[in-house]
Design a protein that fits this description.
Low-confidence stretches: none
Helix content: 25-40%
Order of helices and strands: EHHEEEEEEEHH
Structural class: alpha+beta
CATH superfamily of the largest domain: Phage gp6-like head-tail connector protein
Largest sheet: 5 strands, antiparallel
Number of helices: 4
Distance between the termini: 12 Å
Radius of gyration: 20 Å
Strand order of the largest sheet: 1-2-8-4-5
CATH topology of the largest domain: Hypothetical protein yqbg
CATH class of the largest domain: Mainly Alpha
């Protein structure tokens, strides 16, 4: 099931001041560059782990209700179901009671009794479920290994921003970052 970002996070898991302290940058001349690196590092960590670090809203889209009664949700962790709709052949939305869905946080699944839900009203992309995902609203809510992975990526990219491949690619993820992310990776089924 494809996931579509509806609302990006309002903050980053590492503040500009934290990143500057980690980089040992004492001037403000490169604040925009460092802020962009923080956002890029967050997105890279999220892509590698299939997890949202800071609260965001996403939509999953499906063709039909799975017979087993659950959707695996990415990105995880799932906080809440915000809305659920069925789309008809003309594209009009028909609300489904989102209280019918239960959150299984341990397995990042949305659980529901499929027999109790109306059938989709069109063959493709007839189901839309909007969800709130992420560890929380601020940096303190994000597990420290993920925050440190963001700091390390920012540092790596900041230190190597002018280099062109000289026998190796600086675009590769440093081993320390990969190691930090290993325990948080959501495997695909």
């Amino acid at each position: 099931m494809p996931s579509i970002l509806l609302e990006p996070p309002e903050t980053e898991p590492v503040t500009l001041d934290e990143a500057k302290a980690f980089l040992r940058v004492e001037h403000d001349d490169e604040d925009d560059v460092i802020a962009a690196l923080i956002a890029s590092a967050r997105m890279q960590v999220e892509a590698q782990t299939r997890r949202a670090l800071i609260t965001q809203e996403w939509r999953i889209v499906g063709d039909g209700w799975p017979a087993d009664g659950f959707f695996v949700v990415t990105p995880a962790p799932l906080q809440a179901v915000v809305a659920a709709r069925l789309r008809d052949a003309e594209g009009a939305a028909h609300v489904v009671d989102h209280e019918r869905f239960m959150i299984d946080a341990a397995t990042a699944r949305l659980v529901f009794p499929p027999w109790s839900l109306p059938a989709p009203l069109r063959a493709a992309a007839g189901i839309e479920i909007d969800m709130r995902v992420g560890y929380g609203d601020g940096p303190a809510d994000v597990p420290e290994p993920l925050r440190h992975a963001v700091r390390l990526l920012v540092s790596h990219w900041y230190d190597n921003r002018g280099l062109v491949a000289i026998g190796q690619s600086v675009a590769l993820m440093p081993g320390t970052v990969a190691a930090l992310l290993t325990q948080y990776r959501a495997m695909s089924i």
